[in-house]
Amino acid sequence: MIPVSKPYIGEEEKKAVMEVMESGMLVQGPRVAKLEAKFAAMCGVKHAIATSSGTTALHLALIANGVGQGDEVITVSFSFMATVSSILMTGAKPVFVDVEAETFNLNPALIEAAVTPRTKAILLVHLYGYPCDMGAIQAIADQHGLKVIEDACQAVGATYTGKVTGSFGTGTFSLYATKNVMTGEGGMITTNDDALAKHCRLLRAHGMERRYYHDMLGYNYRLSDLHAAIGIVQMDRLAGFTEKRTANAAYLSAKIESVITPQVKEGYGHVWHQYTIRVNGGSDRDAAVKQLNDNGIGTGVFYPVPCHQQGYVREMFGAVSLPVTEQLAKKVISLPVHPMLTQADLEKIVYEVNRL
Q: Is the pLDDT confidence value at 3 over 90?
């Protein structure tokens, strides 16, 4: 089986973890600070704040941007549930806007109609590693005085017109084991706002700037130095990994003919966290997944049930119609594109997909 994702753990990562173990400084120490500095430099921002997961990064970013009880946050349903659950955990309401079929991302043309006096922020998702149309989204946010929060959990290093994701508004990233940069489990918030960065740092550590002196209500959302040590090594691999993912995606797109392959617009820098195809017309996606898996091709379906159709969300907000999202959820299949693929792997993937 060619796996749909495969975390890379080399000797450098193992050595880095052992050095932390031997140092005795396991939590929120110098490795976390070094990882934050590397991440901020990569995004071209002043601040990066490490957290315990991508979900906690989202939650803190929302709180630090003043999102709370009674507010509304415009977002998408075609995403991992953390996007929506983070909004709900603040007491705010997610207001769902449909996505574009070609990009899988928030459709800017539909945002304006969703804005109300209660709207506080737009929480967009750079899905699969493909950046949103930040020019159009930022213009709408500026017009209405809305905060922009980027769920870039799958898009580390992606670019829009040369500018890196996580540098447009408040960026949030996941460092989960399968991500393009991973620490096993972890997250990151990025910002140019000094006050917001300080707020996030206080929130992640029980509201403490000085030990045992609590300036505000906070919680424990810290990242350990063990995780950060892995991430530091992974950051040094990012450029090479992205280059390999991009080459793999180009090969697949050039050779696959039986399904709809992803397209990249000019000015958009895709980092290919996932290579996501769509089965044609009346084709049975689940049957295609079974055929590929039976023939040794690992697949993923991200995501079979959109957030607005999850049971508890329906109970809270009732039925919501998002026709493009609902259609994509029935048609998408993600194929292996990770850097560890061999040429033989790529050829086998193409062969089996073209047999669908």
A: yes
State the distance between the two ends of the chain, measured CA to CA, in whole angstroms.
Answer: 17
DSSP single-letter state for residue 206: T
Place 28 in a pLDDT band, splitting at 50, 70 and 90.
Answer: confident
CATH architecture of 238-354: Alpha-Beta Complex (3.90)
CA–CA separation, 238 vs 34, rounded Å?
A: 16
**179 noted as active-site residue:** yes
Copy the structure tokens of residue 319: 């039925």
Which of 55-73 are b and which e, b meaning 16 or more Cβ less than 10 Å from the residue's Cβ? Answer: bbbbbbbbbbbebeeebbb
* CATH 3.40.640.10, the chain: domain bounds: 11-99+106-232
Q: What is the per-residue pLDDT across 212-226, written as a single tens digit (0 to 9) for each? A: 999 999 999 999 999
Q: Which of 163, 179, 244, 290 is catalytic?
A: 179
Domain 11-99+106-232 has CATH 3.40.640.10: yes
SS3 214: strand
Dihedral sign for Cα atoms in the order 144, 145, 151, 156: positive
